[in-house]
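sry for the spam today, last one i promise. struct tokens for design, 303 residues
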């Protein structure tokens, strides 16, 4: 099977592991910088050109689309879909998960536990917004933020008003959420592949830091999920339409609550914490679900 891994950098851990896992299972995997692709969207024969040559003959794509390049990255994925190439995560599902507000609305509609969350446009409505989420302390988030950036804990009403006002001065879209104090700076990352949680870890923020992202100095350890947490993660991925997803949860006094569903979850932290071959499970999912591959699945290398 010929697989395209859509990534900006072939040296990134997750990209490299996916390429290795594909090779170990007998597949031809190529890393393609999706920002270097250009497209002919003519209906009768859609094309993708990369470094002067047409990309053709691919059986599947594994998108690793960065948050700051969602618009163009999903356009490339959509073009592959027009060419009848199987994509692990579809273009619509990636876009849906990247729109944090839309994603939370869909999760809420699907009965998924969430922190109490508010959203408003005008700074004139800050007081009402804070009351909606139960008052300070609150967490203020930029809708476009990633890896813990653009996330601020406002411990008092005055601090919350200042932060929200500053973000709105920049014309930034924000969410305000209740602060889950009982989580004690820790969250859970559940890695879902094909509707099943295949690996999970607990991430703990450093002292004095309420954000647990590994990019911000957090630590990780393997954790056993409760049946409710496992079900919540699987359902959250299904609601957003993602076959491969990193679902971030907090343990609250009223059960597990979902913070975010990530369409391009990093593999380094969770593989190292759990010693589970997550990349291999993603490639196995491709083998099982790509129509042509299902009839000619290769035997895994013994080396």
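last one done:
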């Amino acid at each position: 099977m010929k697989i395209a891994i859509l990534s900006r950098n072939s040296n990134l851990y997750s990209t490299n592991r996916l390429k290795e896992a594909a090779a170990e299972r007998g597949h031809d995997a190529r890393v393609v910088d999706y920002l270097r692709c250009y497209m002919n969207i003519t209906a009768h024969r859609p094309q993708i050109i990369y470094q002067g040559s047409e990309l053709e003959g691919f059986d599947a794509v594994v998108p690793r689309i960065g948050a700051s390049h969602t618009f163009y990255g999903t356009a490339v994925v959509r073009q592959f879909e027009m060419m009848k190439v199987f994509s692990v995560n579809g273009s619509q599902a990636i876009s849906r998960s990247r729109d944090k507000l839309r994603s939370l609305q869909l999760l809420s509609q699907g009965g998924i536990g969430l922190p109490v969350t508010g959203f408003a446009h005008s700074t004139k409505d800050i007081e009402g917004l804070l009351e909606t989420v139960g008052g300070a302390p609150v967490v203020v988030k930029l809708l476009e933020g990633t890896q813990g950036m653009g996330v601020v804990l406002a411990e008092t009403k005055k601090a919350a008003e200042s932060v929200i006002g500053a973000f709105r001065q920049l014309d930034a879209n924000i969410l305000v959420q209740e602060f889950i104090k009982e989580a004690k700076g820790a969250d859970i990352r559940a890695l879902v592949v094909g509707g099943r949680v295949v690996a999970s870890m607990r991430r703990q923020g450093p002292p004095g830091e309420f954000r647990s992202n590994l990019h911000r100095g957090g630590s990780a350890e393997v954790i056993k999920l409760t049946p409710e947490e496992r079900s919540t993660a699987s359902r959250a991925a299904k609601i957003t339409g993602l076959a491969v997803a990193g679902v971030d949860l907090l343990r609250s006094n009223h059960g597990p609550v979902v913070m975010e569903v990530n369409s391009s979850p990093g593999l380094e932290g969770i593989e190292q914490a759990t010693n589970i071959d997550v990349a291999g499970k993603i490639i196995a999912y491709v083998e099982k679900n790509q129509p042509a591959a299902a009839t000619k699945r290769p035997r895994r290398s013994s080396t």
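The chain is about 35% helix and 25% strand. ok im logging off now
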